[in-house]
Specification:
The complex is a heterodimer of chains A (189) and B (300). With 189 residues, chain A is mainly alpha-helical. Chain A is built from 10 helices and no strands. Helix content of chain A is 74%, strand content 0%. Chain B has one domain. Chain B has a 9-stranded antiparallel beta sheet with strand order 4-3-2-1-9-8-7-6-5, with helices on one face. The chains are: A mainly alpha (189), B alpha+beta (300).
């Protein structure tokens, strides 16, 4: 065997020598931390990222070695931990919504385009708040954690057909937003 | 033009304000992982998760009724008393279209924050939590911060399947078989250690209206866990007398407190030596017709 070992090999080796698990941490901490911070804010996200690797270490004997990449497994643990912190996530989404509506347009070449973009961002943040936790998990594992459908299914322990069908519904709802100007009208109180 | 593909591109940019790398955050997380690794390396070889193997073998040899045998070997009679009390409670029911209401006063750590001079502090929330959970797992969670000025009331509306509502009716009641059944996905999903198992059993006793035989079975499972300690004269934060059941591993202690006359869960705590904790004192529970109702007819 040559080249660097894959995650499954590292995790299997860590069952004999726990120190090996540090390599899994070094590979994936940044991605997991960033995903969690985007969802729950900087402080809670950092804390949950640390918890994710503690939990992953404790439960590593359950990692399915058929999957060479540990990222979906880690993102699944991270997403489970997030479910106990939905208040932090709700607060984060409100911050994103407010930040979008307060963003400055000074100094940009095309202020209209910037306004459209920030309004769209605000609307998306609101749409995320309106989604169920399960829908938000799927859409943000895709958009913010860069997982594929199959990886999301693995992360959330769902059949891939379920992920596909939920995604289809979410896409439909996003499409219903129409153009940004339509969305502005429909979202204005 | 704006279709769903555009929306996903916008979504990818949303909240993209977190750094790609954060060496100080990584160092803190690395340190915590190192501690977990050291704990495992320094830990004694894992003992049998529970005494059920020995209990079952003894049952086979002695051919006596499980409950009778457990009573004979019991060194924690309060747990067996709780099991007996549970078995004598009236059978509850949650009709279709109804909700199980529960309210609790909770304190928990929700994360850490940077203090002056580079020190880290823990963020603690104190709140009253109310839940309305339908048998299909839909419902509402509402949290009111204490004091009210410290934050906003939050509401989480759950779709079917999103909240725990565990129906054990079809499962066996004999403790060893019940333990095997609740370890399966859909119930407790193979807890990694006995502390998580105890936590999970607390959740089953708390969140669901279980029939008396299953409540009794859950208490007998707890009785079979290695290292469980019982305090008969416990007082919860409201001053209510209870039987406290605790299990610890040196870094973490899980405690459940039960009302001795009814076996109802009064309080629980999960406290870690790293300063994180969760505490809940249960106030009121009952079956109501609609989300927003409270037992006794007081609307929320």
């Amino acid at each position: 065997m040559s080249g660097r070992p894959d995650d499954a090999q590292l995790i299997r080796a860590s069952l004999r020598d726990p120190n090996v698990f540090r390599d899994v941490f070094e590979r994936h901490h940044d991605a997991v931390r960033r995903y969690l911070q985007r969802r729950a804010g900087a402080d809670t996200g950092e804390e949950l990222a640390a918890q994710t690797f503690e939990e992953a270490f404790r439960t590593r004997s359950r990692f399915d070695p058929a999957f060479t990449d540990a990222r979906p497994w880690l993102m699944g643990i991270a997403t489970n931990l997030l479910r106990h912190h939905y208040r932090a996530e709700a607060a984060r989404l409100r911050v994103l919504e407010r930040a979008a509506t307060m963003a400055s347009t000074v100094g940009v070449d095309d202020p209209d385009a910037r306004i459209d973009a920030r309004v769209a961002a605000g609307i998306l943040a609101r749409r995320l708040q309106e989604m169920s936790q399960g829908e938000r998990d799927i859409v943000l594992l895709y958009a913010w954690a860069d997982l594929t459908y199959a990886e999301i299914a693995l992360a959330l322990d769902l059949p891939i057909g379920t992920v596909r069908s939920r995604f289809h519904r979410i896409r439909g709802r996003l499409r219903e937003l129409g153009s940004v100007s339509d969305a502005i009208e429909s979202d204005d109180p | 033009m704006s279709d769903s593909r555009d929306r996903f591109a916008e979504l990818r940019r949303l909240g993209d304000d977190m750094p790609e790398t954060d060496e100080s955050a990584k160092a803190r997380a690395r340190s915590r992982l190192d501690r977990a690794i050291q704990l495992e390396r320094g830990a004694a070889p894992r003992t049998s998760r529970r005494r059920w193997g020995a209990v079952a073998a003894a049952i086979a040899v002695l051919s006596v009724a499980t409950t009778l045998f457990l009573r004979e070997v019991a060194d924690r009679p309060s747990l067996l008393r709780l099991a007996a009390v549970a078995s004598a409670q009236p059978a509850p029911s949650v009709p279709a279209g109804s909700f199980v209401y529960a309210s609790s006063r909770e304190r928990r750590t929700i994360g850490s924050t940077h203090l002056e001079e580079g020190e880290m502090g823990t963020v603690i929330v104190d709140l009253v939590r109310e839940t309305w959970v339908a048998p299909d797992g839909s419902g509402l969670i509402r949290e009111r911060p204490i004091p009210a000025s410290s934050g906003e009331i939050t509401r989480f509306t759950a779709q079917p399947g999103e909240l725990r509502f565990t129906d054990l009716d079809r499962l066996p009641t004999e403790p060893e078989a019940l333990l095997d059944a609740i370890m399966e996905p859909g119930f407790l999903d193979e807890p990694d250690n006995d502390l998580d198992l105890l936590n999970g059993i607390g959740a089953l006793l708390r969140d669901s209206y279980l029939d008396p035989a299953h409540r009794e079975g859950l208490f007998l499972i707890v009785e079979g866990l290695e290292g469980v300690e019982v305090q008969d004269d416990y007082r919860d934060r409201l001053g209510r007398a209870g039987i406290a059941i605790s299990l610890g591993d040196g870094t973490r202690t899980v405690t459940l407190v039960f009302e001795p006359r009814t076996s109802r869960l009064l309080a629980e705590a999960d406290i870690r030596t790293d300063g994180t904790f969760f505490e809940a004192t249960y106030l009121e529970t009952g079956v109501v017709e609609e989300v927003g109702d409270r037992p006794g007819g007081t609307g929320a």
